[in-house]
Amino acid sequence: KPIIDVQNVSFTYDGASRPALSSVGLTVREGDFLGIIGPSGAGKSTLIYSMNGIIPHYCKGDFFGSVLLGGNDTFETSLTDLSRIAATVFQDIDAQMVASMVEDEILFGLENFGVSRAEIEPRMAEALESVGISDLRHRAISSLSGGQKQKVAVAAVLALKPRVLLLDEPTGALDPASSRQIFELLRELNESCGITVVVVEQKIGLLAEFTRHLAVLSDGAVRYCGETRSVLRNA
Ligand code: ADP
Ligand code: ADP
After folding, report:
1. In this protein, which residues make up the domain named ABC transporter (predicted)?
2. pLDDT tens-digit map of 192-226
């Protein structure tokens, strides 16, 4: 049964002359590892915003169609409730980070979610551990490498125990080795923790190696979607 069901979605940003998404349909099964690829301006970020409810709740524009996230119609469900199902690592993680210390970045989300005092420490430790950055806990975020920052951003959302992890070009600013590490981490979270992963990525090699399904976007439409191997053969 799908955990994300995008049904015939069209979206035009206020002031834009053409839609960023046109009649997009896409389903993501629970436990899937889906890659999204396409040229700049294809609508990849907009599709992520439609999956997590930022569209229609936060971005202004004309929205048609419907999206079900964990069975909830995003139009009728608050962003707060939606954020308990899907967590997002945005493209601009520097803008996403709210704290200056690693520990505080993770603490922020936990407190925001109303996690009890007793549960905060174990969740913090588990999130850092699962991403392999326990040693960075007391570091300043500004002192970290790009790859380390990405891991902090992932740890901060993992602490919230989402069923779905949405990531918008997490390797965009990373060298090949760090990019691979991020995907190995995503695979681990997907396979061991059963987290559904949806990742916008431009590096075909990583998509081919790590994702199960792949959607190719251009001009706001899904051109191909299916098993990664067959999409890459036909695209
Ligand atoms: P991407 O790498 O996904 O193409 P962009 O550089 O297109 O990212 O977008 C970066 C930010 O600028 C995003 O928050 C996006 O919503 C916003 N943005 C992109 N295009 C426009 C536009 N034509 N008008 C206003 N904001 C835009
Ligand atoms: P991608 O992530 O594939 O680069 P986006 O989803 O960022 O594509 O953008 C899709 C289209 O929507 C582009 O034409 C972009 O310029 C436009 N767009 C994105 N954000 C905004 C915005 N905030 N306001 C107006 N247009 C936007």
Report:
1. 4-235
2. 999 999 999 999 999 999 999 999 999 999 999 99
3-state secondary structure 7-18: EEEEEEECCCCC
DSSP string for 206-230: HHHHH-SEEEEEETTEEEEEEEHHH
Dist CA 20 CA 9 (whole Å): 10
Q: Note the pLDDT tens digit of each residue in 129-180.
A: 999 999 999 999 999 999 999 999 999 999 999 999 999 999 999 999 999 9
> Which ligand is closest in space to the CA of residue 38?
2
**Ligand 2 probe mutation, 11, 40, 45, 168, most atoms within 8 A of CB:** 45
Q: Distance of alpha carbon 196 from its chain centroid, rounded?
A: 10
Helix axes 117-131, 146-158, angle to 10 degrees: 140
Task: Quote the distance between the C-alpha of residue 130 and its chain's center.
Answer: 17
Q: Are strands 196-200 and 33-37 parallel, antiparallel or unpaired?
A: parallel
- For residue 140, the one-letter residue type is A
This complex has an ipTM of: 0.79
Closest CA to 27 of 51, 56, 55: 51
Question: Which residues, including other chains, have CB under 8 Å from residue 50's CB and lie 6 or more apart?
Answer: 6, 9, 11, 21, 24, 67, 74
CA distance 157 to 160: 5
Q: How far is the CA of 40 from the centre of ligand 1 (A)?
A: 9
Give the ligand 1 atom nearest the CA of 168. 3
Provide the pairing of β-strand 2-13 with 21-29: antiparallel
First vs last Cα of the chain: how many Å apart? 27
